[in-house]
Structure formats: structure tokens, C-alpha cells
Amino acid sequence: MNHPEFIKVFAPATVANVCCGFDVLGFALEAPGDEVWARKSETPGITITAVAGAQGLTANPQENVIGVVAQKMLEALDLSIGLELQLHKGMPVGSGLGSSAASSAATAFAVNEVLGKPFSTQDLVIFAMEGERKASGSAHADNVAPSLLGGFVLVRSYEPLDVVPLGVPVDLYCTVLYPQIELKTSLARSILRQEIPLKKGIKQWGNLAGLMAGLLLKDYALIGRSLHDEIFEPERSVLIPLFKEVKAAALAAGALGCGISGSGPSIFALSATKEQAEAARKAMETVYLGSGIETKSYVSKVPPQGVRLVKSPALQPVTHELL
Ligand code: HSE
After folding, report:
1. Measuring CA to CA, which residue among 133, 170, 162, 126 is closest to residue 27?
2. Residue among 15, 19, 23, 240 to mutate when testing ligand 1 (max atoms within 8 A of CB)
3. Number of domains in the chain
4. 13-39 pLDDT tens trace
5. Which of 43, 209, 241, 276 could in theory staple to 271 by disulfide, Cβ–Cβ 3.0 to 4.6 A?
6. What is the whole-number distance in angstroms between the Cα of residue 115 and the centre of ligand 1?
7. Is the pLDDT at 131 greater than 60, yes or no?
8. Is residue 154 domain-shared with residue 213, that is, in the same domain?
């Protein structure tokens, strides 16, 4: 049987929440990220023939987010064709860097290509959100939207969905420190109080509006003054060893602001220059030295582009079923 070539797609990691924008703001990183490969198949339904680069992820298409996203797209188009998918993870699971979102975004884009692009990239957000629902029980868009659209993306509303790509109005560099402990988004959501005191709400929406204005006015000082979260960070940071110390180190090294990346455990800092982002990386890494917790770190410009086709893949197709 002659198989068509795989469409190969890379979708980047993302930082969601960005301190004051819980569930409504996120931005893309250049790397790391995931690849999803897709092609039509003569086998009816969705088949996942490889899950590479991560332990413990299932190849069952009803259980893996890539199968769930693809299925939703076929259902929306009322199609009953066969699809073969492969997931090549290039980033850690449960890291707070939008791992399930990168897989979901890459799937939505790859399947859209295979089907002849019936949807715009912005239309794909709603399908990729189904991967988030599967992974964490909550269909938030603040990781999948920037992974698909690049730059900063605001989710102004969920009902109806109103996704506002802001691009990258001002040069920013992100440092991410990933302490290698796994923290599930479902757990980090389950510990949150459901009510917000009015006083804290006022601070939070002041900061979110300030961050938006700072980005658009290219005002780094305003961005820095706005990167605060007094609602969720105090509740969640107890799950991240040495969070306070890392944050203090990043700010002392000159970062504009620092907070939990998504639901953690990764910690991000934003800086105005690459040099400051590198200095923040060094300072943040130093805090964990001797703690017994291994870390990984990344410095990335906030890029204007998110998901993209992979032209010359470094990876070879996996020809056997892994799981
Ligand atoms: N906004 C989501 C949360 C992002 O914080 O739970 C999860 O990565």
C-alpha cells in the first residue's frame, strides 16, 4: 500500500497566565515544543502509530489529546476518513509549559493541512481546547491560542470564544526555569479557591489592563509594574519548592517580572534584553543548586510565530507501534 507523506508540524511551548491573566493571557516561546505528524490512512478512524519522546503517554486515540483533537475536527466536518497520527514530544509533560497544548495545537494544524485547510488557524483554537479539556478537565485556551497564533494572545471571552492575538508589540525575552518535578494542571486547579475578594480582584484587573497597555505602549516600566498575581500565585506557589527565592533572584538580576508559568512548576521571568534574560537564568538556576532538584532552563525571545510546518525534520518516522 502506498502511504501519502506525513504532514509534519511543530507547535511551541507557551507561558500561560503571565501573572495577572489567569486563563486569559499567554505567549509563545521559540522552543521547546512538540511535533505531530499526520496523514490519511486506509484504516478507518484515527490510529496513533507512535508516541515518542515521553514516558507513560498512551497511543489510545480516545485517551491521547492528539486523538481527541483530531476526532473533534472530523466530527465538525462530518468526515469518517482514516487518519494516522504520530506524536514526537520535544518537551516535558506536566511542566507548566503547555505540553498538552503544544501537542493539541500541532495536531489541529496538521490535521487541517491533511484535510486541505477547511479552517483558519484562529478557528483551530476551539479544537485544540478539546485537548486541554481531556488533559486537565478544563478547556482553557491560554496555552493553545498562543501556541497556534504566536506572540501574546488574549482570550477576552470564553462564551462566546473571543481570541485576540496581540502579536509581539514590544521586544521581550523570556527565561524559563523548570524544576523537574511533575505538577498536574488538574491538581493545581483543584486547590484554587472559587471566590475572589473584591480588593484582590481590583488589583488583578488593574494589573492586567496595565500589562496590556504596557505591551501596546512599549512601556517596559509599566509592564514590570503590572506583572503581579496576588490571587493564584500565593495558593499555587506552595507546590513549587523555592519559588519565592527563585522569584527574588530573577528580579534582583534585572528581570521586569517573574511568576509561575501556567500551573507550574516552571517559573518564568520576562526581561527587556537577552542579556538580562541570561542573567536571570543564571540567578534562578543558582537557587536550586544543592537542593536535590534537577532543573532545565530556556531563554527565548517571545516570537511572532507559533505553530508551523516542519520543512526538514531532524526526526525519522517511527514505523512500529510503541505502546
Ligand atoms: N490557565 C491554566 C491554569 C494554564 O493556570 O490552570 C494551565 O497551563
Report:
1. 170
2. 23
3. 2
4. 999 999 999 999 999 999 999 999 999
5. 276
6. 30
7. yes
8. no
